[in-house]
Design a protein that fits this description.
Blueprint: H1 17-20, E1 36-41, H2 50-60, E2 65-67, E3 73-75, E4 78-83, E5 89-94, H3 107-119, H4 125-129, E6 133-139, E7 143-148, H5 155-159, E8 176-181, E9 184-189, E10 210-215, H6 217-225, E11 231-236, H7 237-240, E12 252-255, E13 260-266, H8 276-285, H9 288-295, H10 325-342, E14 347-353, H11 357-371, E15 375-381, E16 388-394, H12 400-406, H13 417-425, H14 431-448, E17 451-455, E18 459-463, H15 480-484
Helix pairs in contact: 8-10, 9-11, 13-14
Domain Solute-binding protein family: 73-164
Signal peptide: 1-29
Subcellular location: Periplasm
């Protein structure tokens, strides 16, 4: 799938170097084994940046499988695997290499590490996804078997999540070494011989180090334009608005074609927000098309439903399709009037948002839309106590269950228990029954209005030319290891 163009006035195209770069960068970008310089957008501690954290986890601690630059499952600790015809057993053959302490990599040690990793995810959305795992068994000859309670088509994609990298006493097996030097993180690929693989004679010529640094978006893009970095990662809706129209016309930039959850999660079901109809009044009064226009991002896809279009089954409709915006405002105002007849004080809600001009635009739009029905907004920091909090999360694969697990009652105080019960039943039903259960679970979640969808998440990256080992993908996971491999 091709990435969406980033800005309406700055079309994404593959340009020749002479036309694409400034005079100081007129030479065509030739990839060598010099360091690839990567900047991740953000401020504060690097390991607190979720984009950087995923990249570092994937670089420092392998799981059984990994993802390549296009989001395809590739070998990692397991060099091959088979899936039984019933989809209930995944059998992995481990590569012939060593654990971090130098001891042989055995099926027993991998089983124990995997069990510990799974246990650490308890009562999290990832842990709910891993509820499909019935048993992890160590078998003879460096073989590990994972048995499932029911088939899961995307199970290998789940096992490739960076958070499922394995550790032995806090240490992973690579595939890269990570060192800090001169204010940068330097990541270098481990030689194939240290990973249980044949060592090519020319291996040093086919790999390169990668440096990683975190910078505010303006500094990252300035460095990219000046040739001081080669790739900028971690862009979201919050910072995309900082890029002036046309600035990226000489660079390559675009969106990852992601799905997921982007909207307002109810954090305080008290007072005005205690009533689902009041929460729906807020949801219906938001003008999502106007929000996308205000953000100025061509890749923004408005959404009123929990599930994206591709996962909705037979019903593709949006909510409130029988009303135009004026009609939705009138209906919402009627509900507010009924509330105000008993509670005369003005409704005031705390809205938790991240920093950034995109978030400023979102705050302005929400303030305007809620204000049209007499609801005031107080903006607070994203981690502060709030009544409504922005949820901005990419789906790791196209499985409807993921959306419900993110909003599950085990991980959230404000939730739909009825929806959770239906999702648990999907492990025991036929394919057609499962589709019907997902549809009913979505209806219940939307009726509860514990989450107010706004659109699909936005993830963007930019480079000063083609970067070997980098590709836009549906996961928005950009592992460093493929970028370090230049090939022959």
């Amino acid at each position: 799938m091709k990435p969406s163009p980033l800005f309406k006035l700055a079309p994404f195209s593959s340009l020749t170097c002479a036309a694409a770069l400034l005079a100081s960068l007129t030479a065509c970008h030739k990839e060598t084994n010099q360091a690839l310089r990567v900047a991740v957008i953000g401020e504060g501690e690097l390991d607190a940046n979720p984009v950087a954290a995923d990249m570092l986890e994937a670089a420092g601690q392998e799981g059984l499988v990994a993802l390549d630059e296009q989001g395809r499952v590739v070998p990692a600790l397991a060099d091959r695997w088979i899936v039984t015809d019933d989809g209930l057993s995944y059998i992995f053959r481990l590569r012939d290499s060593a654990a971090p302490d130098g001891s042989p990599l055995t099926s027993e040690s991998v089983r124990n590490a995997l069990r510990q990793t799974i246990a650490a995810t308890k009562d999290t959305p990832l842990g709910l996804e891993l509820g499909v795992v019935d048993e992890v068994r160590a078998m003879a000859g460096r073989v590990v078997e994972i048995r499932l309670t029911h088939p899961m088509p995307d199970f290998l994609q789940l096992m490739a999540e960076p958070a499922l990298g394995l550790r032995w006493r806090g240490r992973g097996t690579g595939p890269m070494r990570i060192k800090s030097k001169d204010g940068l993180l330097w990541l270098t690929a481990l030689p194939p011989s240290e990973r249980g693989q044949p060592m090519p004679e020319n291996w040093q010529a086919t790999t390169r180090p990668v440096t990683l640094v975190q910078k505010p978006v303006e500094a990252a893009l300035a460095d990219l334009g000046a040739g001081r970095v080669d790739l900028v990662l971690g862009g979201s809706f919050a910072d995309a608005a900082r890029i002036p129209n046309g600035r990226l016309s000489r660079l390559q930039a675009g969106f990852d074609p992601v799905a997921g959850l982007f909207g307002l999660k109810v954090e305080n079901e008290q007072g005005f927000l205690a009533l689902p109809l009041n929460r729906e009044a807020l949801a219906m009064v938001i003008d999502r098309v106007a929000l996308g226009q205000a953000l100025g991002i061509a890749g923004f896809v408005p959404n009123t439903r929990l599930l994206p279009m591709a996962l909705r089954g037979d019903d593709k409709s949006e909510r409130w399709s029988d009303y135009d915006m004026e009609g939705r405002q009138k209906l919402a105002m009627q509900r507010i009037s009924r509330w105000n007849a008993v509670h005369p004080e003005r409704v005031r809600l705390r809205l938790a948002l991240p920093k950034g001009p995109g978030a400023d635009i979102l705050a302005t739009r929400i303030t305007q839309d809620f204000g049209s029905i007499g609801v005031e907004i107080e903006r607070v920091n994203i981690k502060d106590p709030a009544d409504l909090r922005l949820l901005d999360q990419v789906a790791p694969y196209a499985n409807p269950a993921w959306y419900f697990h993110v909003l599950h009652c085990r991980a959230n105080q404000d939730c739909s228990t009825e929806s959770d019960i239906l999702i648990e039943k999907t492990s025991e039903t036929s394919a057609s029954e499962t589709i019907a259960l997902y549809a009913e679970a979505e209806r219940l979640t939307l009726s509860a209005n514990v989450f107010i969808p706004l659109g699909l998440p936005v993830r963007w990256s930019a480079s000063a030319g083609s970067v070997h080992g980098f590709s836009f993908n549906t996961h928005s996971l950009h592992n460093i290891y493929p970028m370090s491999q230049l090939g022959n």
